[in-house]
Design goal:
This protein has two domains: about 60 residues, no CATH class; about 200 residues, Rossmann fold (3-Layer(aba) Sandwich), CATH 3.40.50.450. Helices cover about 55% and strands about 10% of the residues. It is built from ten helices and seven strands. It has a seven-stranded parallel beta sheet, with helices on both faces. Helix 5 runs parallel beside helix 10. About 30% of the residues are buried.
Amino acid sequence: MIMEETKMKEADSGKMDKEEVRKEELLQDAIEHNHPIAENSQEEIAEAHVQKGTLTQESLSEEELRIRKAFRDRDWNEIKSADSWAIFKVMAEFVQGFEKLAKIGPCVSIFGSARTKPDNKYYKMAEEIAAKLVRHGYGVITGGGPGIMEAGNKGAYEQGGKSVGLNIQLPFEQYNNIYIDQDKLINFDYFFVRKVMFVKYAQGFIGMPGGMGTLDELFEAITLIQTKKIGRFPIVLVGTEYWSGLMDWIKDVMLHQEHNISPEDLDLINLVDTPTEAVKVIDDFYSRYLLQPNF
């Protein structure tokens, strides 16, 4: 009897060992070939990655697990519930933006890097541009964060003009600056809602040197004007030294080599080097239509 029980335990133990080996093989295969895995295996996959040295535990928890979760099958009720709440959040952000910005008057949006320091020449130029815009009757809209955005809000605020901040909640870099009118600070979760506000309530775009976000906002505006989804307004890039490489590539490759744009598309962009030139482009554009700011 005792011998039979011992044999049964050994058999069960052998079976468990084989299952564990097979499980480990499947986990390793999932890691090496990026196969989707069940949600209850997430922690085991994460641990296996760490042991293998392919990723850190922190990056797995923030990135790898999020990616793998996106590939997990969801039932219809789960999808419907999650998407319904997302719709309400998007609607709420649109409503809040429309209500706060509907009566702000003519404004110019200033874009640029959140990483630009106050001693940088472009920070000082953005501050001066914003101040000049206010003296010429415009309000200023920025992304509400540090860097160039702070400079734009600061220039407008110190001149007593309207200083609008459309802040985006991010895990890094972004926090709202102190130069925004408190009744004109709006926080967004969704980039696309925020970009609608930038375009809808601006009479001009001024692009200072920046990164991916600046390029995103710049080409969004150009595309909307090019495709005639919105009326034309002036787009100004400040800093020939910074922007000339991009402009040369657009001309040489996009236009002349590949013919992916039309020659007149280049007329949508104005390249300048000084705050005075930047504001003059805005003023000259609207003087053609006998329009001027009304506050």
